[in-house]
Amino acid sequence: MNFRFSRYDLRLKHTFTIARGARNVSPVVILELEHEGIVGYGEAAPSARYGESVDSVAAFLSRVDVARFDNPFQLESVLSYVDGLSNGDTAAKAAIDLALHDWIGRKLGIPLHQYWGLDKSKTPLTSFTIGIDTPQVIEEKVQEAEAYPILKIKLGGENDEEIIRTIRRITKKTLRVDANEGWKVKEQAVEKIKWLEQEGVEFVEQPMPASDLDGTAWTRERVTMPLIADENSLRLHDVPKLRGVFDGINIKLMKCTGLREAVRMIHAAKACGLKVMMGCMIESSVAISAAAQLSPLIEYADLDGNVLITNDPFDGVRSLDGRLALSDRPGIGVERNI
Length: 338
Ligand code: MG
Description:
This protein is α/β, with parallel strands linked by helices. The protein has two domains: 2-109, Enolase-like, N-terminal domain (Enolase-like, domain 1), CATH 3.30.390.10; 114-336, TIM Barrel (Alpha-Beta Barrel), CATH 3.20.20. It contains eleven helices and 15 strands. Strands 4-5-6-7-8-9-10-11 form an eight-stranded parallel beta sheet. Bound molecules: magnesium ion.
């Protein structure tokens, strides 16, 4: 068993702006794990928020020696070894996790949702993300998102009111809001959320900084809208701490080291009475399709990273009228485009 990896620059259709900054290109690392002539694909989409970059991913992967294991079916042993190599590097670890799972599905000739015993007709709707922008560009993006019944709106900047006003002028669709830790003071968070309750918003994601769990709990007591943790919900050990503070968690493969831990987080969240959303970074169809394989287990999906780019190197999960449509392709369900 061995693997190789290379950098790939995902080009964004629009400059993507959230509360933390803006970009036009999002570099990822594509990994190919080979054993017995079968190749499994993985991807790392590193985020500076979690201390990763393509360089840190490459440095980490260069330290990983999978040749010491017999085959990808030893997934538990391989991934425990990989996770033990460092404290962070979660996206780099996810690349290996995804490739191992993809390889196993390909070897068995079945898609991963079938491997886990999931019903592919039970996938949720996925939202389409509208980044922070000028009213004119936001209008354009809302038109582009016509096929999606749910929009996820990035707020937490200077012009929250203007953004919601612009969107509400052109659509009555269900809105979900992601503040990306942008509301720094608890009184401000309460005021914003109460306003969003009037605007027909379904829930708000990460209203306050991850470091202010007490402020978030204070806020939650004063609003009726559900709060979903993202920057507060990284790995399995975070889940029990969020009980009573949030109403749900957003699991991302790149934060949690991949599918193996995502499955555990889903079950832990359910045990804690928390709803589950699966989200993404800007990712190609490799990581998006991998997350989609688990989606029959979750309430909310925000798996649109691959439709925000113009040069997806893979063909994978599609969405039909906003609903994730899983195919019968084996593994994570992708084929290379280029
Ligand atoms: Mg988020």
